[in-house]
Write a structure and sequence with these properties.
Elements: H1 7-10, H2 28-46, H3 49-59, H4 63-67, H5 73-76, H6 84-105, H7 107-134, H8 151-160, H9 170-188, H10 191-212, H11 223-241
Helix pairs in contact: 2-6, 6-7, 6-8, 6-11, 7-8, 7-10, 8-10, 8-11, 9-10
């Protein structure tokens, strides 16, 4: 069972109030997902290159898997980071982004935003590739492309973190990330870059929806949260440039 983090959990304890002490907020979604990523990455690190490649293809949300009914890849692909060396850098950075999102949204909203970006972008990209193959714009071999990782979910979170930005910077935040992701599409012209743009748009839409519904904390960032936001920006930049 997922326990949502409440505003009361996040509020710093009043040192003048008897019987209260400072404590770290509970972050069950962040801890659980990071633990799963660490376990999977550790297993991948001891596999041979051939075995690792087979596992990546098996977990990929490519057209071959999806058209053959392997719907589970929409979830398993989010647990696999193909480049093991890069994974040990990405995981702690992702942990900072997840922690900030869970502090601002709560555990359930974090999961919903991440999955909306990851699954939504994966399906829309797959649909676009199916059409592109049918009309001959891309080679049919792309059906078996490797398509795993955390970047779609992470880009959805960076879009949704508009809720953590001061009100006067929200439009600039969302516009800047849209333009950066769109530039990646124009420069790289890969389905992954398209997925980053789509997931960022999904996350931004969800973020503004949470603001309108008062479903996320809009209080000022603490110093720790400001640091987490800076790391989140770094991770998003690495993914968009990588």
């Amino acid at each position: 069972m997922v326990v949502a983090t409440t505003t009361a959990d996040l509020a710093p304890a009043d040192p003048h109030t008897p019987g209260r002490s400072r404590s770290w907020p509970r972050l069950p979604a962040t801890a659980g997902y990071l633990a799963a990523l660490i376990v999977v990455t550790t297993i991948f690190s001891v596999l041979s290159d051939a075995a690792r490649s087979r596992m990546v293809l098996h977990a990929s949300t490519n057209l071959h898997n999806l058209l053959n009914g392997h719907i589970g890849t929409l979830f398993s692909s989010a647990l696999v980071i193909g480049d093991v060396s890069a994974a040990w850098v990405i995981i702690p950075l992702l942990g900072c982004m997840l922690a900030l999102a869970e502090l601002r949204f709560g555990a359930m909203h974090l999961v919903h935003v991440f999955l909306a970006g990851h699954i939504g972008a994966s399906l829309l990209v797959a649909g676009g590739l199916w059409v592109a193959i049918d009309v001959g714009w891309v080679p049919a071999s792309i059906r078996w492309a490797e398509d795993v990782g955390v970047s779609y979910g992470a880009m959805a979170l960076i879009g949704a973190l508009v809720v953590a930005v001061p009100h006067r910077w929200r439009l600039a935040w969302s516009t800047a990330w849209f333009m950066i992701a769109a530039e990646g599409v124009l420069i790289e012209q890969t389905f992954t870059s398209v997925g980053h743009l789509v997931s960022c748009c999904i996350g931004t839409a969800v973020g503004f929806g949470m603001i309108r519904a008062n479903a996320a904390s809009t209080r000022s960032l603490t110093r720790i949260e400001s640091g987490l936001l800076a790391v989140s920006v770094l991770l998003a930049a690495i993914m968009l440039m990588g």
